[in-house]
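Honest question from a wet-lab person: if I give you the sequences of every part of a complex, can you actually get the arrangement of the whole thing, not just the pieces? Trying it with mine:
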Amino acid sequence: MHSPVNWALLGLVIDRPSYAYELAQRFERTYGSALPLSSVSHAYAALGTLKDRELVEELPARKTGRQPKPHYRATAKGMEEYHAWLIGQVADERRRQKVFLLQLTTLTRNPCNAMQILDDYEQACLDSSCTAPIARGAAGVPSSALELQAKLIAEEKRLAIGAKIEWARFARGELKAFANARANQAEQAGDAPGD
Amino acid sequence: MGLLELRHVCKRRTHGGRTVTVLEDASLSVDPGELVAVWGLRGSGRTTLLRLAAGIDVPDSGAVFFDGRDLAAHGEEMLGRGIGYCQKSFRTAAPDRDAIEEVIVGLLVNGVSPGAARARARDAVERVGGERLARRSMRELDSAERIRLAIAHALALGPRLLLIDEPVAGVDLHQRDDVLLLARSLADEGVAVVMTVGELTGLSGADQSLTIGDGELRGSRKRALAPVADLGLRRRASG
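Yes, you can. This is the full assembly:
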């Protein structure tokens, strides 16, 4: 299952058994624009997929007099696979970052170009650090799960951007040393008598 | 022109017979109501940058302007007269003195009358959210409270530019953000605030985030500043 929306819906079912319409609403409250749900019908389709894979199961219908809304809860398999998927995200993120770094460092043949990109990258990180939110009343314990979530996300963003800025500083030093070494080699080659 | 401007500033320092370039061709412009956070490692020149901005140190070349005045010609005289400077650690000669008394003494030293000093000190302490620390002795204050007091000390003199050296150094994780929010709120009130930080998380919420190190001040998003020589020509022409 590749759809991050489906995994996110599974996470919400693990948090609390629910029915499709309510899940769609919780999904929008939780993920907002960070992970858009195309429509409520997506939640119905996702629950079908999760059920087929035995990640969720339908709860026995309650007698309400109205047409029953099927409620779903996570199975033990669902909890296990969700956990594994979350941890797998770390490796995915590392892969994305590695691709970016490979793209950046392919330019080391021309240190001036690489330095310019590195400068722009650092500037983007610095700009991003300005917008990293500071939680008001940070000294207190969060009063709700949503407040805790916001606090954890804010701190992760700040630390992650900080690491990128430090890396840019390190890379600049390395790039400069590399460029200087190349220039020295070229100079020495130029001084050497020709064959 | 910004309220504070560093134009092509170079500054070197000698440590143990070795000369180190702290800043090479550094430019910065800070407007009223702007919060600028500068991150650097220990020994990167963070404090030197603030001392230059305060007029305590003079650049080897380039110039520092506060409110259009070249600080090289005014030395430290703008300190307490438009510029407030909070040093890294707020020390006192009288650790048993009440915190608010410490602010009052600072005002008296600067020629404020005793009656006015008391009212201004109270306002400044309230402004930094330090009502609870006002009647405690300096000895009893933790790092976060000391930095609040240092800021109150500077604010009491009504600065338009506030320079704060490492406000979150030694402050625990939970109080760190409250101190950063205080700096943000002072900027929102219209004070130009420049602070240095040793942790990158301290850059959050700033209008300009900069890094300092290896002689470079990086990250200023302001347009390139005109050379000092050009500025001099313009000033002479307009004068």
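Two things worth pointing out. The interface with chain A takes residues 39, 174-178, 180-181, 184, 199-201, 203-211, 213-214, 218-219, 221 of chain B (CB under 8 Å). The longest strand of chain B covers residues 18-30.
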